Amino acid sequence: MTAGVQEVVVYTRPGCPFCTSLRAGLRRQGLEFTEVNIWEDAEAAAIVRGIADGNETVPTVVVGEWQAVNPSASSVLEAVAEHAPDLVPESKPGLIDGALKAVGLRKES
User: Fold this and answer.
1) Quick check: 55 and 2 in contact, CB under 8 A?
2) In whole angstroms, how far apart are CA 11 and each of 31, 37, 39, 100, 109?
3) Sign of the CA dihedral 54, 10, 77, 19?
4) Domain total for the chain?
5) Residue 69 belongs to some domain of the structure
6) CB neighbours of 84 closer than 8 A, spacing ≥ 6?
7) Cβ atoms 55, 30 nearer than 8 A
8) Residue 80's domain spans which residues?
């Protein structure tokens, strides 16, 4: 387990359907994360290139030492459970609440 992991970072870019899908899946599960747009942050783009073999492939997710390019929401949650257990949501949102969070109509509480 990585000590001191304080956040889940999801690197994205506008218009990316895979990013939209991952964000929705993570929100549906109640996982809080920090989203970074690589088109607005040159340092973030460099981080993604370092992880994705020189490409700016998104979504790219970092949880402590764990890194993945285009992971599923379930694999991100598994990584969080292993590397940052304090960040695992205490409970899953209900069906309606999870759906509203997934589409961005309800903020994390």
Assistant:
1) no
2) 15, 6, 10, 22, 23
3) negative
4) 1
5) yes
6) 2, 5, 6, 7, 8, 63, 64
7) no
8) 8-100
Q: What's the whole-model pTM score?
A: 0.81
Per-residue pLDDT of the chain (109 residues; tens, 9 = 90+): 445 678 999 999 999 999 999 999 999 999 999 999 999 999 999 999 999 999 999 999 999 999 999 999 999 999 999 999 999 888 766 666 556 655 566 665 5
Main-chain dihedrals φ then ψ at residue 66, nearest 5 degrees: -80, 135
Nearest residue to 26 (alpha-carbon basis) of 66, 58, 61: 61
What does each C-alpha distance from 37 to 1, 24, 41, 62, 99 come to in angstroms? 28, 16, 6, 14, 23
Residue 105 lies in a domain: no
The single residue listed with the structure tokens 């939209």 is 20
For 49, the 3-state DSSP assignment is helix
109, part of any domain: no
Q: What is the CATH number of the domain that holds 80?
A: 3.40.30.10
Residue 60 lies in a domain: yes
